[in-house]
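Structure, all two chains, one model.
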Amino acid sequence: MIRAPQTVLALLLLATLAAGPCRSEELKDLYFGEALFFAHQGLYFEALERLDTEVKQHNRVDEPELDKLYSHMADADFSLGDFELRYRMHHRAGRAISAVLEADVDDVVRNDAAYRLARIHFQKNQLAEAVEALDRIEGEIPESLRDDVDFLRANVYLGEERPGDAIALLEALQDSPEFGAFASYNLGIAYLQSGQRQAALNQLDIAGKISGDDPGELAIRDKSNLVAGTIHLEAEEFALAIPYLNRVRLDGPYSNQALLSAGWANMSIGNAERAVVPWSILAEREVTDRAAQEAMLALPYAYGKLDVHGRAAVYYGRALDAFGAEIDKLNTSVDSIRDGKFLEALVREEIRKDKDWVIRLRSLPEAPETYYLMDLMASHDFQTGLQNYLDLADLRRKLVAWQRGFDSYDEMVELRHDHYEPLLPDVDAEFRELDSRMRLRLAQHKTLVKRRDDLLTTPRPEFLATPEERATIELLEQLQAQAGDDATTLQRIKRLQGVLIFHLRTEYHARFTEFDANLRKLDEAMAIVQSQHEQYVRVRQAVTHSYAGYDQPINRLRVNAANAINEIDLLMARQGRVLEKVAIEELTARRSQLEKFGDNARFALADSYDRATQAQAKAEAP
Amino acid sequence: MSKRIRTALLALATVLLAGTAVSQDLTGENMQSLDGQVQEIKSDVLDISSELRNLEERLLYPSGTQLSIFVAVGEQEDFRLDAVKIEIDGELATHHIYSFNELEALQKGGVQNAYTGNVVTGAHELRVTVIGKTDGGEDFSQSGTFSFSKDIKPKTLGITLSEPGLGDDSIRVGDW
């Protein structure tokens, strides 16, 4: 049984993962918006850092429903998991999304989370866990997610070699606007996996005729035709293979393989003349391509079959020269990798700004090895290792830049300390004096307010006497004590006291109104004093906060950053060694293949010369 | 069929259906352990970054004087934003020229933190100048002057931009 092409399935999944975070309906939290701003640019480290900090702050507030992030929390939790996934932090992404699954949320949110979790597991090839996550989907599934769920489930079933289950789902997806072409191809693979060869061929035939101009759909159409052709080739049904192989576009990603197979199919039915056509095209293509290299050997073989031994000898000679040059290039590449130039080229930032940076690597004169590593570099496992290496290099760059900042912060804190420390004792002394005066006035103000409030309930006219009146009352009291039993004097004193009481009582309301008005003016003045006092206290605190208490956090950050750099250096060395080793293995394997091709070409060249000589002798014989 | 052809076909089928053979170094436990460690160090560096940001904010932009200005693009806006200039009390605060990626991120709902700085408490004037191209391809330059008040709490202003001449004010500023 032929295995389902996992590479294609992985590519399809990546295509579905590429959809970005959606525009929030009504953005209330700017910092969430800022995280989205970075995420939409593919800057997931920055996006994660912003959102993670914001979510942590939200979780710390006493009344979260008053926080601006509150209405975005479901989105924010998803986005965190999403950003972590895109930043290849699957462990954290899984945890974040699992947390949403465990929370008390409605069907739509839970199903979305379950789907995302299943995608993570599928990407990590944890198929049983992916099924488990998908099985948690129940109740209402949003229309926009329905096809995604079914397509993912079908792919998981294919990965688990459960083609029967996958077929049912894929059949229903044939008309899906988003997945139709991919589902059509995958259905063919599912039939193949289930042993239904004819059904698989019929389905691949349908997938191989899909119309459209989307590059992804065109590629899947080519792939369907190539696989159908290959199935016929394997069964030695060479004539049946040819129409499928001929359908593959000449400028598509599968054209080299299709041209090579088309040549062999024609050759196998004894039609060497027809084999020459695709092989001639292919032999002129990029010389590092496996299929092109094989065609350089196959083309003269076809000419030999056509008894054109002279031309065959010429092409064998060309192939031999080309293989020799390529072997030299491969040797140079292996040496270059051993010198560390491969990794140096990979981390060059200006190259990675281009989305096709892997392709652009080929144009780097100092990285010849990349010519032969395109297939390897496109593989999922190598990509994971490579991305990890690049992420580590990025993190290292960030940490080194931050380290430069620590010294500046230290200096800033020191300058502030040296500026403020000599000034503060005098300022504080002056403030203490002003503060005690202000406190006295505050106490007086408080007493007056209390007196006014008391007078409102219990009128006390004597309280509103003027200083002169107060002095007169006291004088009259003294005279009264001195008067003894002198009735005339006592009467005069009483009369004067009566006049005073009369004034105090009859003018009481007017005096109280004036007292109240004056007190209100004093309230305003006291409020200004109070506000200035508070402002001073805040500024005074800010001064201390501007230089005190930073030593510990800066030192902690300095140590943590240094430790992280050491750790990253170790990881980069280990990851780099793995990448270099794998790249060298790949180049060595290609070199061995070229050496074998070279041996074959050498023998065939000699044979062609012999045959050409014999043919010439035969022709010249009388 | 010759032995050579059979061998070649077999090789082709293997390449075609299984993809590039990947070294065990890339799939083994060693690689998984490395991947796990890379994820851990990413988490550590994110924590460092978050703590550093916090420290920078306290050190450089104390809450009493902190002013942050964010820029967003209105929904359904397809105009091309080339640059935004922000002046506070007549002094240039920031002048940003937008890349294609940044513009796309704004159009998808992202919000840019265009400026963070310090201003004293009290009344201030904000002047925003926007340069771009309308959806119809015409160059435009729009300015708007706004007043805002800074109190003892950190101040956050949001600038929302729309294509000029479509009804609403093309530059809107609000507290956020």
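Residues 406-553 of chain A form one domain.
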